[in-house]
Write a structure and sequence with these properties.
Low-confidence stretches: 1-35
Largest sheet: 9 strands, parallel
Mean pLDDT: 92
CATH class of the largest domain: Alpha Beta
Number of domains: 2
CATH superfamily of the largest domain: Glycosidases
Number of strands: 23
Number of helices: 15
Strand order of the largest sheet: 14-13-12-9-5-4-3-16-15
Helix content: 25-40%
Shape: globular
Radius of gyration: 25 Å
Distance between the termini: 31 Å
């Protein structure tokens, strides 16, 4: 446990404290004649700089074993060891969020009560891990111990991916509810026009929210499927004639394309309502294709229309406030004029009247060992451009495998150039959550020149973390701790040399900061 707390805070040797009111508190282990003390110093709280803020996420794709687990059939111990290595890397890089794919194709990488176990774990759909463990619960616990948020990533409509090899389990929708499922290309899809199928997806989400302490609920760009062509090159229409006919027979008046967009809109809106009702502190986000609808595009921008082909009216979702964050997949180089990174970044911010979070997705997996690889500097420059235009916002890397393999030194470059210090996820003030309270502090001097700081949450406190500023010779160093709650204290160890002051605040589940407390070390 202690190793994980140190890793989460970015520390090597570290610190912990217990103060009552404004009284001086001695440093335990100091000289009996002149024991050092902590003294309340409100003026320090005002002097400490603002906490650095930036969403720094990475997608962990489980479909086709892209990122985790590395292959089907690994033992429980092997799966867990791989997960810990990825989480350790995310913490070492000073990322602060992991977006884990938990429902790739109407299946589950958690102990679902409604859908079968994913084949990407054991190799056989419906087979639980042996010996048993719950992967999502494991990822959540281990992420929080490293100061990382865990966002659960679901695919709402895909029912079978092209690289799937396992026979469907008896409880899979393709067998239990075949009337909802359509074959399109080499995949199976849940028809968004089937009202009962939408109810099933909402029930899956409700179960997930009630049983798992996730920080975010996340959808990607797969709504209606990307178009498939037949052998002659003609685009095939999605085979939703049964649901379309029932809609028309029931008095529906929309054209077919508008009806399809309505089906997607209604699911997005109801997902947000479900999250708000059950877990109001959980953020709901979507990572759509990165180019907007043709009628609104900036001059010179061209490419695929998700509005017309995926039936995703993303601009409306931002306007209506149906999402807390948008991660448009800006998967093109800065210099590619028809899909220019900076122009598209400005476009999505311009479609955001309610000032929701806009954190672009970066195509980090375009860094490969092949001749057509992106240069590592492309990603570094995209992050720099983003910070210049939208400071304090954020981004997400697709996907973890490129960082884990350190392709062409990508992870090294990010660690060195892009993430020199920790950052907190931007606050989400429009969500309501219980206010965080600063912890009780206990400080102890050790004989090896280190200080041990113990942060004990208030009794009954829910999951929260702390922001800590250390003052050394007039300079400030910022640290963010792991998560903790009312039943677990954190211990940090810090070098004592030159340390003259501390500033501490608590952070609630939406990233809002409590009142800061300042202390001088005497």
């Amino acid at each position: 446990m202690r190793r994980r707390l140190l890793l989460a805070s970015g520390l090597s040797p570290a610190l912990g404290l217990s103060l009552s009111g404004c009284a001086d508190t001695p440093l335990q282990g100091g000289s009996s004649q002149d024991p050092p003390r902590l003294r309340s110093a409100p003026e320090l709280a005002a002097l400490a700089p603002a906490a650095p803020r930036e969403f720094r996420a990475v997608w962990v794709a489980t479909v086709a074993n892209i990122d985790w687990p590395s292959r089907k059939g690994l033992s429980t111990a092997q799966q867990q060891a791989e997960a810990l290595a990825l989480l350790d890397l995310a913490a070492q890089l000073k990322l602060n969020a992991v977006i884990l794919q938990v429902r790739p194709a109407a299946d589950a990488l958690y102990d679902s009560r409604r859908e079968p176990w994913s084949e990407y774990l054991s190799g056989r759909q419906g087979q639980a891990p042996e010996p048993f463990y719950d992967p999502l619960a494991f990822w959540i616990s281990e992420a929080h111990q490293r100061g990382l948020e865990l966002h659960a990533w679901l695919n709402p409509f895909r029912a079978r991916q092209s690289q799937a090899t396992s026979a469907p389990a008896a409880g899979h929708l393709s067998r239990s509810q075949p009337q909802w499922v359509r074959s399109y290309g080499d995949q199976l899809w849940i028809d968004p026009g089937e009202p009962a199928a939408a109810e099933h997806t909402l029930a899956v989400v409700e179960d997930l929210l009630r049983r798992y302490d996730i920080d975010g609920l996340h959808l990607d760009d797969y709504f209606y499927p990307y178009p498939v062509n037949d052998s002659s090159g003609r685009e095939l229409d999605f085979p939703d004639e049964p649901s379309w006919s029932r809609y028309r027979e029931g008095g529906g008046t929309l054209g077919r394309n508008d009806w399809r967009r309505q089906n997607v809109d209604q699911l997005v809106q109801r997902l947000q309502q479900t999250v708000r009702a059950l877990r109001p502190e959980v953020r709901f986000g979507i990572s759509p294709f990165g180019i907007g609808k043709p009628a609104l595009r900036p001059e010179g921008i061209a490419g695929f229309s998700q509005y017309d082909k995926l039936y995703a009216d993303v601009e409306r979702w931002l306007t209506e406030g149906w999402v807390d964050y948008l991660v448009p997949q800006l998967y093109w180089p800065i210099a590619q004029k028809a899909q220019a990174f900076g122009t598209l970044l400005d476009y999505w911010h311009g479609q955001n009247p309610l000032d929701r979070h806009v954190w672009p997705g970066l195509f980090s997996s375009k860094v490969t060992e092949k001749a057509d690889s992106w240069p590592v500097e492309e990603l570094v420059q995209q992050i720099a451009l983003l910070r210049e235009r939208r400071p304090g916002s954020g981004h997400a890397h697709f996907s973890m495998v490129a960082l884990a393999q350190n392709r062409r030194g990508l992870a090294d470059a990010l660690r060195r150039s892009s993430y020199p210090q920790a950052a907190l996820v931007p606050a989400t003030p429009w969500l309501k959550t219980a206010a965080a309270e600063p912890p009780t502090l206990t400080l102890e001097r050790r004989t090896d020149g280190l200080l041990r700081l113990r942060l004990a949450p208030q009794a009954g406190a829910g999951l929260q973390r702390y922001a800590l500023w250390l003052q050394r010779e007039g300079d400030w160093e910022f640290l963010a701790t792991a998560y903790t709650s009312g039943d677990r204290a954190l211990e940090l160890e810090l070098p004592a040399a030159g340390l003259s002051g501390l500033v501490l605040s608590a952070l609630d589940r939406c990233g809002n900061e409590s009142l800061r407390l300042g202390y001088r070390l005497l």
